[in-house]
Design brief:
Layout lengths: L5 H14 L1 H16 L11 H4 L9 H14 L4 H15 L7 H29 L5 E3 H10 L7 H9 L4 E3 L11 H4 L10 H5 L8 E4 L5 E3 L4 E2 L2 H13 L4 H16 L3 H21 L4 H12 L3 H12 L7 H10 L2 H11 L2 H4 L1 H30 L3 H14 L4 H9 L6 E7 L5 E6 L7 E7 L12 E7 L3 E4 L7 E10 L2 E2 L3 E6 L5 E8 L2 E7 L6 E7 L5 E4 L6 E4 L8 E10 L5 E3 L3 E5 L12 E6 L5 E8 L5 E8 L10 E3 L9 E2 L3 E5 L2 E7 L5 E9 L2 E10 L6 E8 L2 E7 L6 E8 L2 E7 L1 H7 L2 E4 L5 E10 L2 E4 L3 E4 L6 E7 L3 E2 L2 E2 L2 E7 L4 E11 L11 E10 L5 E5 L8 E7 L6 E3 L9
Parallel strand pairs: 1-2, 39-47
Antiparallel strand pairs: 3-4, 4-5, 6-7, 7-10, 8-9, 8-11, 11-12, 11-13, 14-15, 15-18, 16-17, 16-19, 19-20, 19-21, 22-23, 23-28, 24-26, 24-29, 25-30, 27-28, 29-30, 31-32, 32-35, 33-34, 33-36, 36-37, 36-38, 39-42, 40-41, 42-45, 43-44, 43-46
Helix pairs in contact: 2-5, 11-12, 13-15, 14-15, 16-17, 16-19, 17-19, 19-20, 20-21
Length: 904
Amino acid sequence: MMTFDQKAYLADVLKPLTRDKLLLAEIQRALRELQGSPDVSVVAGLDLATLLAIPADLSDLAAHITSVDMFLNKRQSMPPAQFLKKLIAELKVAGHDLTSPAFWKQLQSAKADVFKSKLADFTAAVSLEHQALKVITKEHLSDKAKAQGLGSISESALKSAVEGSGIVVCSDFKLPTTPIQRGVTDIGRFTEYRSIVDVLLLAEPQRAESIRVIDELTFGPGGRRPITIAQVVAAQKAAETGKDSDALQAAQKALTIVRTDFAESVDLQQFVLASFVATTKEMLARGELLASALLKLTKGTGLDNVDAARILAKLSGSTGTRDLNDVTNLVAEGSLADARNTFDAIANVDQFGEAEVNRVAAVLAAAENRKATLVAGYEAAMAKRDYGTAANALAQASVVDRKDARLTELLEKLPPPSPEYLVAKPSEKDGITLSWKFDGGADCQFIVVRSTDGHAPANTGDGSQLARDLTAAAFTDPAPPMAKRVHYSVFAVRRGVASLPASAEQIVLPGPKDVTAGSSPTEVTLMWRLAPEAVGVQVTRTNPDGTRAPVNAGGANRTTVTGLVTGERYRFSFEAVYVLPDGTRVVSPPVAIDASPRGLISVIGDLHIADAKLSDGRDGHRATWPEPGGYSVELWAFPIDEKLPAAGIEVDLADLDGIDGRRVSGVLGAWAGQTSLSFPRFRDLRVIAAITVDGNRGLFGASAVVGSAPSVKNPRVDRYGDELVVSWEWPHGDYSAAVSWFSGSMAQSKSVSRAEYKINGGCRIQATAVDRVTISTVAFGNGQKWIASPVEVQIAARLPVVKYKLEIPPSRFGRRKPVRATVESDGFSGPVSLLVVARESSIMPSRSTDGEVVEKIRVDLNGVTPASVEFSIPRLVSPFWIRIFPDGGAPVKLEDPPTNQLKG
């Protein structure tokens, strides 16, 4: 005998039954029917054995029923306990003995008949409920079957029964999270494409039908064929080679996105599914009926009938019971309409609890209020024509409710922001250049409108359109009306909608043209040309001292100003006078010209340049020339080797740069009809030319060479017998050298080129009595020769040679006879003082201080016959040396005999 387990009964039966609203309703139905019909079939649809925890072996039923009844009596606070206790009582009243095994066997037999009938009713109900889409998920079908007491039937039997009534049973699927970019959604604007699949299969000869996107990505007709990235590549090639159109350009953009972001087959399938899901959501958001939406998806896009029904069922909530989490998810996704519809349909306090319903209601209301506030802000901004604020409000509202197509439509219809900082400036050739700033995006163009009606154009038709479809933020009006106040407005345009204008105004007042001046010694004649709209001209003279005076120009196009000082510079300013349509008198921007009264231009034929000290103490030059009579003179410096124009040739000053000419700047001076210019020394040689200037041209005059050339470095002179070799380091540049040599008061010179120097290994001079040599750098240019300051090298005089011989007698018994010295010279005559030096060593003395002076001798030479002299030497230890040296400044070169004569 098994005892009744109260805890298990409470946990397994009563508590679950509290939450099972459908089963409680079924028990209540049985109670009502028992009161009218006592037949056992009334409770056959209930799993009564489970509800009363009847033992499987039906043993000791009386005790068990008593225990259950007593426990239910204790749990009367629970509605399920109340219903079950009442059910036991009603069965007893109906004459059914629950303590008899026969009752339970009879109930089991009746249950089979009831189950069969119940399954038929269930199948008919499912078919009727899902008639629009004719699909149901296995999960949803199982839940419904359990709710109807058909939980024990197998999945395959349940599916077979339902599909027999024309309803397809399929698996549930997850909605894709793949975002759909705008470049893809834009294809929906073109009737050429039913869906994204038409774009992906652009290269296919036939349109796809029966497109499956949930469990596989395939299409027909002609058998099932997969959609792969290879077809996307082929479609892209077809789009690139097809006839250009807006639709084809949109397809190219979409294909580029797909090929870049969805190359994997799984990603491609999810992307296509997401595209159809988005299309379906838009249909449902418009209030499309399910049957109508199904027809449009299958016939209008080629989507497979079952896949279309599954997507509709998933999105409409007919595949399963939705809860409040779906509402918050829809709010988070930006689907406020779906969220509100779902909430209104499922918000049940008994099912979800009041607190949860209120929480979700608050979330939904907050989103709806946020959207309403933003839309109100948009409307207020539109009333003020504040399109920037309106666009910002709509953009935020579109984030809150992404599925509200009306918001997107309003946003696209909004005018772009206005251009800013419009500036109108006069341009060359009397035009007006407009420039502005714009930060409204690259998808905008500009329209420029001009008006002369006294106000800025308020819209694109309020005046003359000068340009449209501009992409650059600048425009030049080449021919604006003259002497009128011209108003310009610039509009930004996006998708045909124009912004508020940015406006500016300008008046074109051309100044006098072709202004020229001619002169005589005391007069200047001025000439000009005016625009036809001008009524006159104002001319003002600025004197050399800065004072100003008006010039009577009359009504002609020329005038002569008299009483001027020759050579002084005057400035004349011209302003054209205009009268505007309103009578206002205005003048143009001034045009100025400088002029000096003077006679005929002349050449500077006399130019002197001398060394001078500048005011700051530096070394420089002072150039002087005669005053040319009213014309300015400029000094120009040129390289010394540059070929210059001859004096009297007219030159264009701008062309002097081409021959490396540079103006010489310095301090001007003038006295007694002479003009001077003091300027610093040049680092190199330059030709200075005086040019008489007349405007941009001038007359070439006299020239002179100034400056300094670099001297040679490290000069030296080497003597080789009777020949001198002079060498030096050349300075950088194209120079030659002048070499001079001196012997007393006699001087000789020669020119040496670099080539000669290189061939001869220097400058060779045949000379025997040269005491100094000078070397000067020589430059040539413009037919002139310039010699730099010389560098001098002193040369010691060549001394006469005096030869001597020694006879050192041997020592005998410690005594030695005197030594004989024979001295001679070829060509030298006169006395010579000599020192006799002795040294005890194996090394010969090289100077007089290397030993002991043992004798001083004096010899008189006649230049023809030798002279002999004898002298004694002290006792010396061998080996020793006897050598003779000149005494002090003796003007001779002493030549030693062979060393064997010197050693003893």
